[in-house]
Amino acid sequence: SQQGEEDPQALSIQEGENATMNCSYKTSINNLQWYRQNSGRGLVHLILIRSNEREKHSGRLRVTLDTSKKSSSLLITASRAADTASYFCATAFSGNTPLVFGKGTRLSVIA
Amino acid sequence: KAGVTQTPRYLIKTRGQQVTLSCSPISGHRSVSWYQQTPGQGLQFLFEYFSETQRNKGNFPGRFSGRQFSNSRSEMNVSTLELGDSALYLCASKQDSNQPQHFGDGTRLSIL
């Protein structure tokens, strides 16, 4: 069963705009991770945020984590057409338990 | 470092057959996990191997099995294939606990 639920399911924006995707989960976690998947390819790891962290940045990506609300958000600033992909959040109960993925947000960036 | 390599990339089988998929992890990674991805169910965890031992197992029937070799390479086997087994099978490796997983490009299995 899915632990993380991304919102929205699909998002379409113009190049240069910001894209925000949200993830909610149900149980306590050790860490939360965001991945990107281009059509027909494997997943690419973007950011890992631990339960004691509130915000992380990587280039144009910003991830926040609110453990009290059991939610996370991924912000992509100044979107490019190459950002078009599906984005998944995944949670881990502990360091050695399996990742549980949400169903993803399909992002389309229109040039 | 070379990434995670999965072979074959595409496979077509018929119902009742069995199939073996292969995964070579990133050098130095001892944990290998397998996932099934379908449009309806999304990404579902199959199993994880660490140092040749199954460390975690998802909720899949016994027709799905796997193993890991001493060089960390892993194989998964599906016996008595069903139409519903059509999916993208993804392998991922990681170095240690609390580390991100690195995925291969998957094997797309189609059952006729």
Q: How does this structure look, described?
A:
The complex is a heterodimer of chains A (111) and B (112). Chain A is mainly β and 111 residues long. Chain A has strands spanning 5-7, 10-14, 19-24, 31-37, 43-50, 55-58, 61-66, 71-76, 85-92, 100-101, 105-110. Chain A contains no helices and eleven strands. In chain A, strands 2, 4, 5, 9, 10 and 11 form a six-stranded mixed β-sheet that branches. A five-stranded antiparallel β-sheet of chain A has the order 1-3-8-7-6, with no helix packed on it. Chain B has 112 residues and is mostly beta strands. Helices cover 0% and strands 54% of the residues of chain B. In chain B, the strands form two sheets. In chain B, strands 2, 4, 5, 6, 9, 10 and 11 form a seven-stranded mixed β-sheet that branches. Chain B has a four-stranded antiparallel β-sheet with strand order 1-3-8-7, with no helix packed on it. Chain B is globular. The A-B interface holds A 2, 30-31, 33, 35, 40-45, 48, 50, 88, 92, 94-104 and B 4, 6, 33, 35, 42-43, 45, 48, 50, 55-56, 58, 88, 90, 92, 97-106, 108.
Which features would summarize this protein structure in a list?
heterodimer, A: 111 residues, mainly beta, six-stranded mixed β-sheet, five-stranded antiparallel β-sheet, B: 112 residues, seven-stranded mixed β-sheet, 11 strands, 0% helix
- How large is the share of residues in beta strands of chain B? over 45%
Report the sheet with the most strands of chain A, covering strand number, pairing sense and barrel closure.
Answer: 6 strands, mixed
Number of helices of chain B: 0
| Poorly predicted runs of 5 or more residues of chain B | none
First-to-last CA distance of chain B: 37 Å
Query: What's the end-to-end separation of chain A, in Å?
Result: 36 Å
> What is the helix content of chain B?
under 10%
Series of H and E elements of chain B: EEEEEEEEEEE
Query: Uncertain regions of chain A: pLDDT < 50 for 5+ in a row?
Result: none
Structure annotation, total helices of chain A: 0
What's the number of extended β-strand segments of chain B?
11
In round numbers, the mean pLDDT of chain B is 95
Assembly type of the chains comes to: heterodimer
Mean pLDDT rating of chain A: 93
